[in-house]
Design goal:
alpha/beta, Rossmann fold, six-stranded mixed β-sheet, four-stranded antiparallel β-sheet, 7 helices, globular, binds adenosine-5'-triphosphate, binds magnesium ion
C-alpha cells in the first residue's frame, strides 16, 4: 500500500485486565519527522511506544511501517529507553553491535557510530566506566545500529543533568538529520519537546487519546528563548490535565 507516512498507528483499544488504557487513538509519523508525546503521568505514553515498537502485541488495532503491517520488533525501528540498558559484560563496541551477534563490536557500522556520538576512543571501555551521559550516547548509537528509519525514545534524557541533557538533545538532532531518521519521543519536558520537535502531541488520560497537536514551525537551529516556543509552551500547559512533573 503506497503511503507518505513512515509510521501509521491505530489503536482501537488497549486494555490491562478490565481497564482500558488507550481508546481509539491514531498517530502518524512522516519520514524524517520528529514528534514528541507529552501528557500526564500514567496516561499511557510508554504503553503506546511499546506497541509502536512491536514489543506489545496485545491490543486491538494495527501498526504499519512503510505501509506494511508490523507484528513484532523490526530493524526499521531503534528503541532508546530512559536508562541506557547496556549489557555490563560486553564492551561499549559490542553493546552497540549487539544485534550483529557475538563480536558485533567489530561490525564496520560500529566505529562510525562511536565517532558520531563522540566516543571514538571508548569502544573497548566497559559500561561501568561510563558517565550517565556517555552511557546514554552508547544507547543512542546502539539504537542507530540497524540503520532504522524511526527512533522511538521514552524519556531518553531525563536521568542526566541539565547540561548533558542539552548536549544529548543536540546529538539527537544531528543524528536524525544525518541519517534522515524520524523520531517519536516521550518526554515530560515541554521545553525539550518544543525545542526538538516538528509536532508535539498532547495525550489525555482515562482512557488516553491524543487531544491536540502543536506544529512547531520555527526553523532550526532553534533559540530556546524563541517567543513562539514560549507561546506554544503556555498553550500546552493550559491543556495538560496536571502540571508536568519530571
Ligand atoms: N503491565 C501492566 N499491567 C497493568 N497495568 C499496567 C501495566 N503497565 C502499565 N499499566 C498501567 O497503564 C497505565 C499507563 O501506563 P504507562 O506506563 O503507559 O503510562 P505513562 O504515560 O508512560 O506514565 P509515565 O509518564 O509515568 O511514564 C497506567 O495506569 C499503568 O498503571
Ligand atoms: Mg512512561
Amino acid at each position: 500500500m503506497p503511503t507518505s507516512n513512515l509510521l501509521e498507528l491505530h489503536i482501537e483499544a488497549k486494555r490491562y485486565a478490565t481497564q482500558t488504557i488507550l481508546d481509539r487513538l491514531s498517530l502518524n509519523v512522516a519520514r524524517g519527522e520528529i514528534v514528541s508525546l507529552v501528557g500526564p503521568s500514567g496516561c499511557g505514553k510508554s504503553t503506546l511506544l511499546r506497541i509502536a515498537a512491536g514489543l506489545d502485541l496485545h491490543y486491538e488495532g494495527e501498526v504499519r511501517i512503510n505501509g506494511s503491517r508490523q507484528y513484532g520488533p523490526t530493524p526499521h525501528i531503534g528503541i532508546i529507553f530512559q536508562e541506557p540498558r547496556l549489557l555490563p559484560w560486553l564492551s561499549v563496541a559490542d553493546n552497540i553491535g549487539f544485534e550483529a551477534g557475538p563480536g558485533g563490536g567489530r561490525d564496520p557500522r560500529v566505529a562510525p557510530l562511536l565517532a558520531e556520538v563522540g566516543l571514538a576512543t571508548s569502544g573497548n571501555a566497559w559500561p561501568k566506566q561510563l558517565s550517565g551521559g556517555m552511557a546514554q550516547r552508547v544507547a543512542l548509537a546502539r539504537g542507530l545500529f540497524s540503520r532504522p528509519e524511526l527512533l522511538l525514545l521514552d524519556e531518553p534524557f531525563s536521568a542526566v543533568d541539565a547540561m548533558t541533557r542539552m548536549r544529548l538533545q543536540a546529538l539527537l538532532l544531528s543524528v536524525t538529520r544525518t541519517h534522515n531518521t524520524a523520531a517519536l519521543m516521550v518526554t515530560h519536558d515541554l521545553d525539550e519537546a518544543l525545542y526538538l520537535s516538528d509536532r508535539v502531541l498532547l495525550m489525555t488520560s482515562s482512557p488516553a487519546g491524543i487531544d491536540r497537536a502543536y506544529h512547531v514551525t520555527s526553523p532550526r537551529p532553534r533559540d530556546r528563548r524563541d517567543p513562539i516556543l514560549g507561546e506554544l509552551r503556555a498553550q500546552l500547559l493550559e491543556h495538560l490535565d496536571a502540571p508536568a512533573i519530571d
